[in-house]
Amino acid sequence: MNCLEAQSKIMAFIENKLPDDELREFIKHVRSCKNCYEELDIYYTLIVGMKQLDESDNISTDFKNALDRHLDEEMNRLTTVKRIANSTIMVVIVLVVSGLIWLYSGVLDKVYNYEQTSKLSEQSEYYYQDFFGSRLLNDEEYDVSDIDKYYIEINTTQDETTDFMKRVHKYNLSHKGMNSL
């Protein structure tokens, strides 16, 4: 803000009609420019003194301190308004982020529960029921030798697979030269 703009806004400041965004610039300029401060002091003394005469109030003799107090009060009010606005914005942001996290965790929880339910429905009632059958929960029909039989059966299947792979490998080696003809 330059001196001409500041001097044109003196009356609006004294009458408290200056918008907040212009008020901050006006106060900063008046505090930094000695000529504009003196101009404001003169107008403030005249206008406020005349108002006090019209209202039959006690006439103040210390208009300079009254002007300084008025400038300080306005700057404090602007600072407070800015702090409240910033705090409100931060609270809204925190609430939005918290809400999004809450919704996201709820969705993840539903997806997890759905997946667990589908896994449980695909499995048999008891995980080892396929092997043990009805003997799973019946101690009288359960025999430890069944486990040994199961492992022998698995190893036999693996041995058959290994034997088959060895035979395929031998076949490939014996017919290696025939592919090039």
From TrEMBL:
Putative zinc-finger domain location: 3-36
Keywords: Membrane, Transmembrane, Transmembrane helix
Species annotation: Coprococcus eutactus
TM annotation in the entry: 84-104
Keyword match Transmembrane helix: yes
Pfam families: zf-HC2
Listed name of the protein: Zf-HC2 domain-containing protein
Keyword match Transmembrane helix: yes
Organism classification: Bacteria, Bacillati, Bacillota, Clostridia, Lachnospirales
